[in-house]
Amino acid sequence: MKLSKQFPLNALRVFEAVARLGSFTKAGEELGMTQTAVSYQVKLLEENIGEPLFLRRPRMISLTDAGERLAPRVTEGFAMLAEAMESLRQASEETLTIHSTATFAQQWLSRHLGSFQLKHPNIAVRLKTSATLIDFNREAADLAVRWGDGNWPGLCCHRIMRLDFSPMLSPVLAAKVGGVHTPADLLKLSIISAGDHWWRIWFAAAGIDNPGLEKFPRNELGTQIMDASVAAAGQGVAILNPGHFEEDIAAGRLYQPFELSCNDGRDYWLAYPGNRRNVPKIRAFRNWIIDEMGAHDL
């Protein structure tokens, strides 16, 4: 037997309203149903139980003994369900789940998130990192920081950071080879993640159409953070977004030898389902990060 026949939830909901209000008409008005539909649901419940729940008299109804026994239990049951739903809604409102690329999460978001928490102390943040574009229909997430062109149907998207790129290396390594004076000088050093298409774009913009990158190992370290760590250790030159590594530049761990930066049309975007754009916690984070990015001129 199907659960709906064993436990006629809709009919119980109608019964609870009739018992509480003492009227089929008033119950129909509360539930947005006709009096006929209310009577039908009560009849279905009575057939399911096997005995009448109401004594029907002209202009008046009253509960039978069976109805008297059932009514408080049904009221209590719906109260428990309402409490459970409210508890889940409250938890959902208080926790903001963000998916982000690892580099953006570590190099920018983690360093500024305290500002959001100060403005919204009632919202807890759950941060998850992923190299793939998440599907909001399949994953528990409120927002995502994505890398791409911002063209994702069904999502609201706001560009929050340009993802420019330029070669960066350790000043110590540059000094060891007598300095890096021209783009061609970079090719005297080890090129980190030489298979990254950013390298060819940058060298072409610098006037070197055939840099010979195929002679370098085709390593793939996965994130800019890893590439930057290898470069800071003096192990080669990485192609990075300078905006992510301002602290490393300021501390002398990395430096950008040339002002030339490129962009392949893909930037960082804040994305979320269009039908959730007015959810308070999403709206709060969206407004905060857009203001924060403007304040830091990124």
Automatic annotation (TrEMBL):
Gene3D superfamilies: Periplasmic binding protein-like II, Winged helix-like DNA-binding domain superfamily/Winged helix DNA-binding domain. Residues 7-64 form the HTH lysR-type domain. InterPro entries: LysR-type_TF_proteobact-type, LysR_HTH_N, LysR_subst-bd, WH-like_DNA-bd_sf, WH_DNA-bd_sf. Keywords: DNA-binding, Transcription, Transcription regulation. It comes from the Bacteria. CDD domains: PBP2_GcdR_TrpI_HvrB_AmpR_like (cd08432). Belongs to the LysR transcriptional regulatory family. PANTHER family: GLYCINE CLEAVAGE SYSTEM TRANSCRIPTIONAL ACTIVATOR, HTH-TYPE TRANSCRIPTIONAL REGULATOR. This is LysR substrate-binding domain-containing protein. The lineage of its organism: Bacteria, Pseudomonadati, Pseudomonadota, Alphaproteobacteria, Hyphomicrobiales.
